[in-house]
Amino acid sequence: MPGNPMINKILEKHKSRGMVAVVSAPSGTGKTTLCRMIVDDIQRAVFSVSITSRPPRPGEKPGYDYVFVDKEDFKQRAQSGEMLEWAKVHGHYYGTSKELVRSALEQDKYVILDIDVQGGIQIKKIFPAAVLVFVMPPSMEELKRRIENRKSETAEEIEKRLQNARDEMEKAPEYDYLVINSDIDKAVSEIKSIIISESLRI
Ligand code: 5GP
Q: What percent of the chain has pLDDT over 90?
């Protein structure tokens, strides 16, 4: 309502507000693809590129998929306070860049964090207004099939990831929303609806 300073202030504040959205899912759920599709679709959304000590998989681009560093470098960065949160997942270290999130929020962006549940729970403590979305595979059999099809892990690593998936799924109740990824377009549209609804929250 133009002319009313109080209402203008409310509208302005509502319009110019960033958001932290965490999308967690067991490895192989297709979460990275989902996050990328969301970032492509929602203009204000940006992907938080994590820092990891895991070696790149074939086709992964440094600086786009992850910032790949060695273990020592990672530990130094964590100690110097460069990371908002970090966790050890499947034997490798992963962390969120404090600077990336700070700068995105300063520009009123919706920053999408593709991180594990340990990270999600840490983020909720730092940003109580963050929205936490848990993505589940349609079944454990389907998850196993997807991880095997990726052909990037050894049998032992696959087993480790499946066990981890079971542990992660048990933490789903700590999240705000649950999305089942049986159809990628449907899952993307559901996550987009969550982000849009949260952006309209007063
Ligand atoms: P992947 O090796 O399959 O890319 O990722 C393994 C797991 O690490 C996934 O669950 C992914 O979401 C998680 N992960 C990726 N980046 C981060 C991060 O910055 N922090 C935390 N806590 N987990 C992350």
A: 71
